[in-house]
Specification:
By secondary structure, the chain is α/β, with parallel strands linked by helices. The chain has two domains: 304 residues, Vaccinia Virus protein VP39 (Rossmann fold, 3-Layer(aba) Sandwich), CATH 3.40.50; 72 residues. The chain is 32% helix and 20% strand. It contains eleven helices and 14 strands. α5 packs parallel to α6. The N and C termini lie close together (4 Å).
């Protein structure tokens, strides 16, 4: 299974169209365009190292709003357009979808671009954000992209997280780049506060979602996000909502992000890296000018499914895939890296980290065989008896022979 397919021939021109629409709907005078890269760099700083310098109304500044619409919105939309086509999301006319921390309604925009089979359904989107200006900007972009005759209804709600949302529960509740605003200042060592926050948010997400609905959370692909996704996954399972993706199982997560492994090093975190060659060229040019080149985009995400009554931890098969005694589903997580070998070994071996019901896996083989895999691929590999474990991570080493193509 390819989790992050490249932009299709239908999606790519629409992704380019977003950039054109931003300029059409929010024209930037020539005298301000030269300062756009600097505004992008400053907004990036306010999102990371300069978070303490932000005021509540910082997005009301024209330069920063322009930077968000021309840089952060397109890149966020791009990442979602790489992810959404692979997600098992099915809707019917009349369904409601709730997007928390919606910003310029990025998720509805990306869903319309990347899932053309949904465009004729009568869907209602409730887009909640505490900043009214950026919601209004997103709605203007939405009408420019989809037109006012679209059967999709976009309702914007200017309110903080936790505010009441009226109407029937949603077929999908989404939160994209939202929770890092809440857990960013929690120290790595404070796992209890992280878990308490995840429990609270899992209850909130569940309360807004229909029994048969799903929950999608997407965050930046950094260790802090990976740690949060892991504890949120546990909290949602306690609410009866097992993970559908990216997890190939519903057992304990082997990528906790903040835990320490046996050697004292930081544990690996669940995240995925996407090559961005198919992103709009003008977006790459702005990124380079701002000193923020994006040869790769990263994200951590979780799709939790409908509520179940049985204990979800009893199942270890990926969604829709029967358990095989001979083959183990493994989700590829990392980039290739060489593994320690004897000095006289002729063919160097490379590995990628993978996630499985048996814990952390090192998918290992000749460099060429490992490089053909992509972040997010789901493989079926044959467990070995007795197990061979990596002394550094404790993970199980499974071989992928050269030329094997076991993507499912």
């Amino acid at each position: 299974m390819i989790l992050f397919p490249p932009l299709s021939a239908e999606i790519r021109p629409l992704m380019e169209r977003i950039l054109t629409l931003v300029d059409e709907v929010f024209p930037l005078p020539r005298r301000f365009r030269a300062g756009l890269p600097e505004d992008v760099a400053e907004l990036s700083r306010l999102f990371t190292s300069g978070r303490g310098d932000r005021s509540e109304s910082y997005m009301g500044k024209p330069g920063l709003l322009s930077a968000y619409l021309r840089y952060f919105l397109p890149w966020n939309c791009y990442r979602l357009c790489r992810l959404l086509p692979a997600l098992p999301l099915t809707f019917s006319s009349g369904d409601a979808l709730t997007d928390l921390g919606s910003g310029p309604i990025t998720l509805p925009l990306a869903l319309w671009i990347s899932r053309p089979e949904l465009r004729n359904l009568a869907l209602e989107f409730r887009c909640l954000d505490r900043t009214g200006g950026i919601l209004d900007a997103g709605k203007q972009l939405w009408y420019a992209l989809a037109g006012r005759s679209s059967p999709w209804i976009i309702k914007t709600i200017r309110a903080p997280l936790g505010a009441p949302i009226h109407g029937p529960k949603a077929a999908l509740v989404s939160a994209v780049n939202l929770f890092n605003e809440l857990f960013w200042d929690i120290p790595y060592t404070d796992s209890q506060s992280l878990a308490r926050g995840a429990d609270k948010n899992a209850r909130l997400l569940g309360s807004l979602t229909a029994e048969s609905g799903s929950i999608l959370v997407v965050e930046p692909g950094i260790p802090r996000s990976g740690a949060y996704i892991t504890v949120l996954r546990t909290a949602l399972q306690a609410e009866g909502r097992p993970p559908l993706l990216p997890c190939p199982h519903t057992g304990q997560c082997p990528f906790p992000g903040t835990a320490r492994n046996g050697t004292g090093g930081r544990a690996k975190w669940c995240h995925f890296a996407l090559q961005t060659q198919d992103a709009p060229q003008s977006l790459h040019q702005l990124s380079i000018a701002a000193g923020l080149p994006k040869e790769r985009g990263t994200l951590s995400f979780l799709l939790a499914g409908p509520r179940v009554k049985q204990n979800p931890a009893e199942s270890t098969a990926p969604p829709g895939k029967p358990v095989s005694r001979d083959l183990l589903p493994v989700r590829i997580i990392s980039d290739p890296f060489p593994i320690h070998q004897e000095p006289n070994q002729f063919n160097p071996l490379y590995s990628r980290y993978g996630c499985s019901a048996r814990g952390l896996i090192l998918v290992t083989g000749e460099k060429r065989a490992i490089e053909t895999l992509a972040s997010g691929n789901l493989l079926e590999l044959t467990p070995t008896v007795p197990e061979t474990r990596d002394p550094k991570t404790g993970g199980i080493i499974l071989l992928r022979p050269s030329g094997a193509d076991w993507v499912i």
